Amino acid sequence: MALKRFVVIFVSRRNTLRSILAQACLSHLGSDRFAAYSCGHPAHLGDSIDPAAISALASARMPVPTQLPRAWSELTRGGAPQASFVITLDAGMLSLQPSWPGQPDAALWDFPDVAAMSSPDESARAALLMLYALRRRLELMISLPLHGSDRDAIRSDVRDLAYMQ
Question: Which residue from 16, 31, 45, 43 is spatially nearest to 127, judged by alpha carbons?
Answer without folding.
Answer: 16
